[in-house]
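Two folds, back to back.
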Amino acid sequence: MDVVLAGMSKEFDGLYSEVGRPSIAPERLLRALLLQVFYSVRSERLLMEQLNYNLLFRWFVGLEIDEEVWNHAVFSKNRDRLLNQDLAQKFFAHVKEEAAGLMSDEHFTVDGTLIEAWAGQKSFRRKDEDDRPKGRGDFHGEARRNDTHASKTDPEARLYKKSAGQEAKLSYLGHTLVENRNGLIAAAMTTQADGRAERDAALLMLHELTRGRRGRITTGADKAYDTRDFVSTVRELGVTPHVARRQNGAIDERTSRHPGYSVSLSKRWLVEKPFGWLKQIGPLRKVKLRGLAKVDWLFVFSCAAFNLIRIPKLREQSA
């Protein structure tokens, strides 16, 4: 952790202001947010309460034993002001550098997961509701679609369900690209929830991963990625798509006859481990931030936290 923060010192220098009262140091802010993720602390108010009496938390953040803890509102304000998508991606990249030698650079798996938005079903109302008489919020029997309705609480959230038979919820989609050796996250991003978002996000992450690379890589995925557009575009990027086959899909015997195809499919479970940790331990079962930008930085930051907690264990196993 110290090495990661030391590598980001230049980014942190640009966050300090030369005027006004001193704010919370970005290094301490990141350390406190990591504690919140690691120990499943559900709010900033409880985090500040823990910092007030927990000596382990104080040591990790860098607070002296008699140093005053920040007000929870001040902490939240500084978090929103200092942390953004760009800083989260840089933090993720520095953590990824620490995993050198533990990650495969040729074989990957991609998938997406629903992130329930901090908005209720009753907030999902018609976009032209201001011109209509206001009712009591009873939407039963009403056809509700994303093109005609929007959440008044979080307008960027979308009503979506990942598979048939499930309840549609106001959600975002989190996407990860996981390497197949130890299941560490190689890339992460968040998008609005729609039927093409998983494939579009996978293409963006693979494009970034293959930039400047000469050799081919492989990527495994489930049947939702078995479309002709996705498979052809992935091949143009220099990626061999080891996608689970579906009837009349784009994957045929030319790909599935190779032994590596079966190996990639057998490694697909690795992509589910981060999702389980991010929702059971991390803060992403139902995110408490609103807006795509904030949800994205929290998702990427939490993915970096997952890698951070895995790296020491993997180093110990490989020693």
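---
second:
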Amino acid sequence: MSNVWHVLGNGDKASYFNEAKRPGKLLLCNMPPFEIDPRQVYATCMVDFKMMMALTAGEIQLDMYEWILGTRPRIWMYEQSNFYLKYAHRVKEFYTHVPDYAVNPTNFNCGHMAVHYACNKQKADEVHLYGFDTIFDFNMRSVTDLFLSSDRSQNNNYRLLNNWRPIWRDIFKEFDQTKFVLHHNHDELKIPKLDNMEVVVYNKPKSKAQEREDTSDMNKLPPEILEQIKNKEINKGKEIPLNFNRRMRRRIEAAARKQRKKR
């Protein structure tokens, strides 16, 4: 029998989880985007200090779920001993592994951690993703923002997308024997589609926001430039080919800077 896991994100399309019965185990990311019976939930995953701060202050309640905590929540637990004693029984486990391609825990968001945990720790054969709109659209809205403030300025949104999308690509590449099923209202991925990826498309029209140009779309970089970046051939001071327009040049330069930081 297949080992099937479901990871419920906090984006607009998370509601597709409710379109059918979903046999398998369910992981949440921080807070659920809608009410879910705790008996359906294996655990909720958390990676941020701000979630720990909000829980400590009593601003949010997640006592009904068991927790899988990343690197920074683990630090928080050890530094806030009273909080740890209060909630130790909710901690299912710590999962502090951060793959090299993520560089550091800051880049490794809650969704990344949940999917990586399902594949690496639980050896999932199949992982379904709902509400991970940033893989498809320039859409950073999250239900968590209703409870905790986040920087959603345009510049920061681009920065996060440029960090997050390559990590998604690399997770899907790392677990090439796992089938990933992404649920959305269109199949125009902003990362390369690999053989182990499938998109289930729901018959919902695209919004005007989804139609806008996304300059963080990894699929719009020419293959030869992606190969050069992968091989670290584009470095600081090296000339970007002049036949690309200004926007394309900015994309290439940003991608090259990101690759240099991995050295």
